[in-house]
Design goal:
heterodimer, A: mainly alpha, Rna Polymerase Sigma Factor, Chain: A, 2 domains, 11 helices, B: alpha+beta, Arc Repressor Mutant, subunit A, Immunoglobulin-like, 8-stranded antiparallel β-sheet, 36% helix, globular
């Protein structure tokens, strides 16, 4: 990890200032997480215009509900990602169509992840942290057996239920459940350093 | 289920991929199980970290301004009501109060909804603070209520108008989320006036919404608002409704 020349205001403090109605704090939060939230939204909804809508909705929800953020229950990043994913999944559900599995597989292939990670190295301090997070997460996902990884990606990026995943992959439901559970257990172990850093 | 079997539900629960029955059963279990709650917390972080697996993408520069402009339209829940007493009434007591002011409503239906909301609350501790702020809005003198319904159709909404705190609290049920690029908009309809926008919102994947809107000055200035209507409009809302209200109801007076 890089050493930070100026110790930044902790995320949770920004959220506290948002709860008090200070919109500059929301701007700061956007500067830290806007890119991550946009990338997540775009990966789920696929259309840039819809992704922008999701970003506006997600930060809007974070702004309105800032007082309900509880740092003991998780990191600000996880809170924002959870909100954004949920808004993005609402969008594709409302749209009534979902991205096909093979497109998704191509999007999330190793090449698809490796290039942007390599290219993101020159960011300032915050970017370095984000890049580090991306590196850890992609390494952890790459360490999973392919079928576990595929099932988890379908769950996370498409919001498919376990039975929908089973149907999509033409696998028994029990097999899919086991894959998701085992994969998540492994990720929990592999991502330990990142998650502790976030808490 | 054995303790072990329950624990197996934590990861899929955190990913939001349990069926609704499984989810409800697990949430009932969570209320009394520290170990499973800890697992859910951990797996929620794991799931959120997966956001970093999305391919990088550069948001357009103007998006930051849109985010801030949207925020300037609404106050964070609780931010404007710091001097109000924080009343931690249980949901059922709040519901009873709603019934008292709301007049003749289907009790069983509301009770069912209250149970749904309670379950929601148990599962999502993170929204508790917002809920206590919402309770402040639901209680106290000078509260009007409107129930919106469509003829012979399932969607419905209930709106509480807290005059003292100048807020609308909107609950919507079985209202399918407006499609991408669209939103729901509420209208205050007073005799002799063009409809005034009360604000916009959308429902979640379950067709539920619970939002707090600030009462516009123009609406607050009206002597009496007769009706309330709901329309679907382009994102951001319209100056005037562009369709016949899908849901309509009459405000009841509480005082």
């Amino acid at each position: 990890m890089a050493t930070l020349p100026n110790v930044p205001v902790p995320d949770s403090q920004l959220v506290g200032r948002m709860a008090a109605g200070e919109d500059a704090a929301l701007g700061d939060l956007y500067d830290r997480y806007g890119k991550m939230v946009y990338a997540l939204a775009l990966a789920i909804v696929r259309e840039p215009a819809d992704a922008e809508e999701v970003v506006v909705d997600a930060f809007g929800q974070a702004w309105r509900q800032a007082a309900s953020f509880d740092a003991t229950r998780g990191s600000v990043g996880a809170w924002l990602a959870t909100i954004a994913r949920s808004r993005a999944l609402d969008t594709i559900r409302a749209r009534g169509r979902r991205v096909r599995a093979h497109e998704r597989a191509a999007l999330l292939s190793d090449e698809g992840l490796a290039a942007p990670i390599a290219a993101a190295g020159s960011d300032p301090a915050r970017g370095v942290e984000r890049t580090e997070a991306r590196r850890l997460v992609s390494q952890a996902l790459a360490a999973l057996p392919g079928p576990q990884r595929a099932a988890i990606e379908l769950a996370y990026f498409e919001g498919l239920s376990q039975s929908e995943i089973a149907e999509r992959l033409a696998e028994p439901l029990g097999t899919v459940k086991t894959r998701i559970r085992s994969g998540m257990e492994k990720l929990r172990g592999l991502l330990g350093p990142l998650l502790e850093g976030a808490a | 289920m054995t303790a072990h079997e329950w624990q197996e539900q934590a990861a899929p629960y955190a990913l939001g991929i349990l069926s609704s029955e499984e989810r409800r059963a697990f949430e009932d279990h969570l209320a009394g199980c520290d170990a499973c709650r800890a697992d859910v917390r951990a797996y929620t972080e794991v799931a959120a970290a997966l956001a970093h697996a999305a391919p990088t993408a550069e948001p357009p520069g103007a998006l930051r301004d849109r985010v801030l402009a949207e925020a300037r339209r609404v106050r964070p829940i609780g931010a404007g009501a710091r001097t109000a007493p924080r009343v931690a009434l249980p949901w059922l007591a709040a519901a009873a109060l709603l019934l008292a002011v709301g007049g003749a409503v289907a009790t069983w239906r509301l009770t069912t909804r209250v149970h749904d909301l309670e379950r929601d609350l148990a599962a999502r501790d993170s929204v508790h603070a917002a809920d206590s702020a919402a309770l402040v809005l639901l209680t106290g003198p000078g509260v009007n209520v409107v129930s919106l319904a469509a003829t012979n159709r399932a969607p419905s909404a209930r709106i509480v108008w807290n005059h003292a705190l100048n807020r609308f609290v909107v609950f919507a049920f079985d209202l399918p989320a407006a499609p991408a690029g669209r939103t729901y908009q509420l209208w205050a309809i007073a005799k002799g006036h063009a409809p005034l926008s009360m604000g916009t919102f959308n429902t979640d994947a379950q067709g539920h919404a619970r939002v707090v809107l600030t009462v516009d000055r123009e609406i607050a200035a009206l002597a009496f608002v007769d009706n309330c209507g709901l329309t679907e409009e382009p994102s951001g809302g319209s100056p005037q409704p562009t369709e016949t209200p899908r849901l309509l109801g009459a405000w009841t007076r509480s005082d």
